[in-house]
Design goal:
2 domains, 33% helix
Length: 449
């Protein structure tokens, strides 16, 4: 089952930079404004590597954001801005946060380690949603240029008894590093190098199956890259220690070769600290979109009830109050609550597994986007007419300002739904889940050489 490994992580040198000035949110959550802010914060901010800005005359000079990323990563190591652990470690990683739009405070606990990469067909790692084309191409170019992983893939495992958290956190002292990010989330890291503790951890994880919570694109990129380079560097860059298959207090488990593993954060899916937010769909640039005609067509599959036009927060509260599957369509012709007509939806989704027919997003993508609006799987995959937004207010405002044709507000997927779909080998539509908070990039770095 799941194989995890300690590693000699690279991390920012606290004597050279302030951690607050150099770490970032994951690359796909960095807006242009955030990107500019990170650039201004420090010349060593990780954004320069994971989401660099193009420069004038790049083509003439034979340069790109990827060549600069590789050059900066090499220079920062040589200059001592980044430093490497002297021995293989894993890292306990805690995030304390306020749940958005509430006063509830939670703490999500996990750990950072290397995880062996598996094909989905092996039944060890499970995905829960479809991926998009552009992010995979971008991440592959960055990985090829830098030969390093700068952010962690977010993995879920099941541990109702909390055994793993006990190994990591019982008796924990002051954190080795901590910071509060721009969303008010307190991030703390503890370095764990004791071979006995690491072997207890690897043993506890050995029977686990994993679900990708966040980072499908990076996982699939790392997996494809590992296949391209399989055996090329076998054993050459393995972390220090005897490469023995058995676990002991003196010998740590080792990856067979560096490309076969990626840096991951593992979190217990049975813990109370998991929060999933909805991701709303904004449809734009449709030819001759008519709200009245759209509502008439939607009535074949859904009851369509007009709502008083209001703030996004009021619409979200209305949606939360629904006991069954429902979503809200915000158009320039009015706002509408859509509830499925079971027989009609079942007939339209006859080829879709039963467990998925009841999901809001499956009905939204398969019936509304595809059948009614003509956005087939390829257009959705390429994001031709579709934007994904966490912020309901911005999603609604884009319609109100005339920048979009229709916004669909949705309720979040539950952990039970995600687990059921993933372990059945099925997938939800792209951007089905938004786990909050995000894992910071730059806390640890895994260099393949």
């Amino acid at each position: 089952m799941a194989r995890i490994y300690p590693f000699r992580a690279w991390h920012y040198n606290p004597s050279a930079v302030r951690l607050d000035d150099v770490v970032t949110q994951p690359y796909d959550k960095i807006t242009p404004a955030m990107q500019q802010g990170y650039y201004q914060r420090s010349p060593y901010n990780l954004v320069r590597i994971i989401l660099g800005l193009p420069e004038l005359f790049d083509a003439e000079r034979g340069e790109s954001v990827y060549t600069r990323a590789a050059r900066d990563f090499k220079a920062w190591r040589e200059q001592g801005v980044l430093t490497q652990e002297k021995e293989p470690c894993v890292f306990a990683y805690s995030q304390r946060f306020k749940v958005p739009d509430s006063d509830e405070v939670k703490e999500r606990r996990g750990f950072i380690a290397l995880g062996k990469l598996h094909d989905y067909s092996e039944g060890v790692v499970f995905r829960h949603e479809q991926t998009l084309s552009k992010p995979k191409s971008d991440r592959l170019n960055l990985l090829k240029a830098t030969r390093a992983h700068f952010g962690q893939i977010f993995m879920l495992y099941s541990d109702p008894g909390g055994t793993v958290e006990g190994i990591l956190y019982d008796g924990a002292s002051a954190a080795d590093a901590e910071l509060t990010d721009e969303y008010g989330v307190l991030h703390r890291i503890w370095r764990i190098a004791d071979p006995a503790a690491i072997n207890m951890l690897t043993t506890a994880m050995a029977d686990k199956k994993l679900i990708i919570a966040d980072g499908h694109h990076r996982y699939e990129t790392a997996l494809n890259y590992s296949k391209e380079h399989a055996g090329e560097h076998a054993g050459k860059h393995a972390t220090e220690g005897a490469p023995k298959p058995e676990y002991s207090a003196n010998h740590l488990p080792q990856p067979v070769y560096c490309e076969a593993a990626a840096m991951m954060t593992f979190v217990n899916m049975d813990s109370d600290g998991l929060v999933i937010l909805p991701t709303h769909r904004v449809v734009h640039s449709l030819e001759n979109f008519d709200p009245t005609a759209f509502c008439a067509a939607a009535q074949e599959y859904f009851t369509v009830d007009p709502l008083p036009e209001g703030e996004a927060s009021n619409l979200i509260e209305k949606l939360k109050a629904e006991s069954g599957t429902a979503f809200i369509a915000v158009t320039r012709g009015g706002d509408f609550l859509l509830r499925p007509k079971p027989d009609k939806v079942a007939a339209a989704l006859v080829r879709v597994p039963e467990r998925q027919r009841q999901l809001d997003l499956t009905q939204l993508h398969s019936i509304i986007l595809d059948l009614l609006l003509g956005l087939d799987a390829e257009k959705v995959r390429e994001q031709t007419n579709l934007r994904y937004l966490r912020n309901a207010g911005e999603a609604v405002d884009q319609v109100r300002r005339g920048e979009a044709d229709v916004t669909f507000l949705t309720n979040p997927v539950t952990m039970e739904q995600l687990r059921e779909v993933a372990f059945a080998g099925d997938v939800m539509p792209q951007k089905s889940t938004d786990f909050y908070p995000k894992l910071l990039s730059g806390l640890t770095i895994y260099a393949l050489e």
